[in-house]
Amino acid sequence: MAGRRRQGIDPLKKAFVKSYGCQMNAYDAARMADVLGAEGYAATDQVEEADVVVLNTCHIREKAAEKVYSELGRLRVLKGERAEAGRDTRIVVAGCVAQAEGAEILSRAQGVDVVVGPQSYHRLPALLAASREKRVVDTDFPVEDKFDHLPARRNRGVTGFLTVQEGCDKFCAFCVVPYTRGAEVSRSVAAIRAEAEAMVAAGVREITLIGQNVNAYHGAGADGAPASLAGLMAELGRIPDLLRLRYTTSHPNDMAEDLIAAHGSDPLLMPYLHLPVQSGSDRVLKAMNRKHTGDHYRALIARIRAARPDIALSSDFIVGFPGETEAEFEETMRLVADIGFASAFSFKYSPRPGTPAAEREDAVPEAVKSERLARLQGLLDAQRHAFNAATVGKVVEVLVEKAGRHPGQVAGKTPHLQAVQFDAPLAAIGTLVPVRIVQSGSNSLFGERVADAARAA
Ligand code: SAH
Ligand code: SF4
Ligand code: F3S
């Protein structure tokens, strides 16, 4: 026991990490679990038994941010109960609410011990130690690179996220990300390749390269000159056993020529693109500071489809941006009808403190926003169902990720990112399997292995 303690390993310590918001946050949450793991904390999904609770928060819309405070209210009660039983609980608020609100969180939520921003979570062990003296806030954008100070990542599973770029310089009028995540920074090709190799060695077969503006990637290549996202993907394509690449999220204005071409030529790059357009109205796009028009987007999609005709498209939309008229909203509906999306996320505009759009006085009434959102989602749902239904009867390659819902079943994804369930032994996990799609459900496709279908015939 004494020997183990000397190594800093107390087998009783447990950490609960919960993430809200985007994939970047999910990646950060996993890395925070790695940091705590290196300190001897075992991961738990039972918050009651956790000695450290980390909420990795999202500030993108009011609802997301408010959720954190109700969760913190519950955690305060739990902390009190554990204290009565003689157990200490450290509560950490990380992520974008931490960055945006800093010390305000300490006054609004008693019970919080540490507030740490997305660029300083590698300092978590020191912050936890310091919090025994007094509550601490660290929302610096440190000069050191957190990636250089993180322990080796632990990988579970067949698919994984890999952060290649962080931050955003675009300043869309509605968005908090440039303030919570700071300026655009790209990691070097060598650092990303090393992390990707470790992921693949641990069994990962599909890597999604992530960044707030991932297609603005311009990290240093081997020769020191900046590499593009397409160049980075070509380099990663040399890793044996890596089967698939994806990337998200992109901005239309950063869809470089070589990236579009890669959709037609890179064998690992999957035919799926999440390319948020936000609105179909040029006046609204201008007010949003998106710096492109609806027709720019249409023309861009035409070029991408020329490179990869079967590409599945996805987007984000905001309805009820201040001043949006009924006619302007209908331009969004028209753009959706023109393009045809395989999936999409759509949101009611939510004013965010510190953003230019929040200052505007021409807010769209809540009821109007709700009505527009319902209409838009109706159209997007219909497009998604049609896209999935069109897969029925086709043979698609599925990367098997895990056991399925029922015994004997496995679950995986098509190149178009559709979830599929089919019968196969668990040994199929981590491999590509040709599957004939026989049915399209509301959240999943159902299929049969081509080998099985041939045998039955
Ligand atoms: N970097 C990505 C998106 C990050 S935020 C991009 O540029 O596309 C994810 C999505 O949340 C955005 O695309 C937008 O649709 C939505 N969003 C951002 N701020 C919002 C706000 N204030 N209200 C409603 N939705 C918002
Ligand atoms: Fe936000 Fe716009 Fe940057 Fe996307 S591009 S993160 S929406 S500011
Ligand atoms: Fe939310 Fe921050 Fe991501 S605000 S969407 S967690 S970058």
Automatic annotation (TrEMBL):
| PROSITE patterns hit by this protein | MTTASE_N, MTTASE_RADICAL, RADICAL_SAM, TRAM
Q: Could you say which residues bind [4Fe-4S] cluster 2 here? A: 168, 172, 175
Q: What is its EC number?
A: 2.8.4.3
Q: What does the record's cofactor remark say about binding? A: Binds 2 [4Fe-4S] clusters. One cluster is coordinated with 3 cysteines and an exchangeable S-adenosyl-L-methionine.
Listed A to Z, the keywords are:
4Fe-4S, Cytoplasm, Iron, Iron-sulfur, Metal-binding, S-adenosyl-L-methionine, Transferase, tRNA processing
Transmembrane region positions?
A: none
Q: Residue ranges of the TRAM domain?
A: 389-451
Question: Per the record's keyword annotation, is Nucleotidyltransferase included, yes or no?
Answer: no
Role description = Catalyzes the methylthiolation of N6-(dimethylallyl)adenosine (i(6)A), leading to the formation of 2-methylthio-N6-(dimethylallyl)adenosine (ms(2)i(6)A) at position 37 in tRNAs that read codons beginning with uridine.
Assembly behavior: Monomer.
- Similarity comment text for this entry: Belongs to the methylthiotransferase family. MiaB subfamily.
The name this protein goes by in its record:
tRNA-2-methylthio-N(6)-dimethylallyladenosine synthase
Organism in which the protein naturally occurs: Methylobacterium organophilum
Gene that encodes the chain:
miaB
